[in-house]
Specification:
With 328 residues, the protein is of the alpha/beta class. It has helices at residues 94-110, 140-149, 177-185, 213-221, 277-280, and strands spanning 9-11, 17-24, 28-29, 34-38, 47-51, 84-89, 115-118, 133-138, 158-162, 192-193, 195-201, 228-232, 235-239, 247-253, 256-263, 265-269, 292-298, 308-311, 315-320. A hairpin with a 2-residue loop joins β14 (247-253) and β15. Pfam families: NAD_kinase, NAD_kinase_C.
């Protein structure tokens, strides 16, 4: 599953302390060669439907069963208790707007018992937990946007139709939406969980671009700073930003010091994000449903610092070191 998006959470500048750990929940595969995707993080993320072959090109929906695959032993089945479907489209896109109108008309006529909700209605919705399914009309960025909409609560499965340029997370073609939606609403598609990351930092990245490392260190060491909680579907990156020097990052796992990385930055990625920024930085590609975290350096000074694959339930702590001498 290829994500060519920018980092989910880019903490620019000199962030003193990042506390990152896996928070699971996931994507979703369907019972047909179609596949539902469900995201997950400590807060709960989204789900999304995708084709069995994770191809960058949308493929026609077929009804061939894929249940013989061992991976489907982990698939769960969604329940549509509340009969509510959220429709999210790519903004400022006429093709997506036309598809949204057609989809609403179809559901109103053929499935009158289902309440359709558009993104603008979320502000007045009492609880987002009552949504059973999200239908995405757009590109990979639309799926990332949906993940953000449900950053503080469980996210229902995401059924994605590719109206974007890449569409690795939305492998269904718009012309197949009739067959695909009927399969979903008839309960013939399962949900495969993925994971997201929870990140806690003493600074949220704002005001950290001045270049005054002494002032930054004092702010970050201050006990008055409250933790900022972020979630990421792809990855969290700690980067030197516009500084001409590399950054020295102390890495600890479960409060035990591991090593110091001197590099342009460091990426902590999910398996879903292993094909995005981490892959471009030389990290390994990990199967999307695995429970793991990737620790990938960005242009490290030492050739001995290689990407790491860690268990998903570990706590990883990153701290910028201000004691490193970059003057040579």
């Amino acid at each position: 599953m290829r994500l060519l998006t920018t980092p989910a959470n880019n903490l620019a500048g000199w962030t003193r302390h990042i506390f990152s750990r896996n928070t699971r929940r996931a994507f979703t595969p369907s019972t047909q060669p179609a596949q539902l995707t469900h995201l997950s993080n400590s807060h709960i993320p989204p789900k999304s439907i995708s084709n069995q072959t994770h191809s960058p090109k949308p493929q026609s929906f077929s009804s061939n069963s894929i249940f013989n695959s061992p991976i489907n032993k982990k698939i769960k089945y969604p329940s549509f208790k509340n009969q509510r479907i959220l429709l999210v489209k790519k903004s400022n896109d006429q093709r997506a707007s036309n598809a949204l109108d057609s989809l609403i008309s179809y559901l109103d006529q053929q499935r009158p018992q289902i309440k359709t909700i558009v993104e603008e209605d979320l502000k007045t919705l009492e609880s987002r937990k009552d949504i059973d399914l999200v239908i995405a009309l757009g590109g990979d960025g639309t799926v990332l946007h949906i993940s953000h909409l449900f950053k503080n609560t469980a996210c229902p499965p995401i059924l994605g139709f590719n109206l974007g340029t890449i569409g690795f997370l939305l492998p269904f073609a718009p012309n197949d939406w009739f067959d695909v939606i009927n399969q979903v609403l008839n309960g013939k598609i399962g949900v495969e969980e993925r994971m997201r990351l929870d990140c806690f930092t003493g600074q949220n990245g704002s005001g950290l671009q001045s270049g005054d490392t002494n002032a930054i260190a004092q702010r970050n060491l201050s006990t008055s700073n409250s933790l900022v909680d972020l979630s990421a579907m792809n990855e969290v990156s700690l980067h030197r930003n516009d500084s001409p020097h590399m950054v020295a990052i102390n890495i600890s796992i479960e409060n035990r010091f591991l090593t110091q990385a001197v590099a342009d930055g460091l990426i902590i990625a999910t398996p879903t994000g292993s094909t995005a920024y981490s892959c471009s930085a030389g990290g390994p590609i990990v199967y999307p449903s695995m429970e793991a975290m990737l620790l990938t350096p960005i242009c490290p000074r030492s050739l001995s610092f290689r990407p790491l694959v860690l268990p998903a339930d570990l706590h990883v702590q990153l701290a910028v070191s201000f004691l490193f001498d970059f003057s040579y």
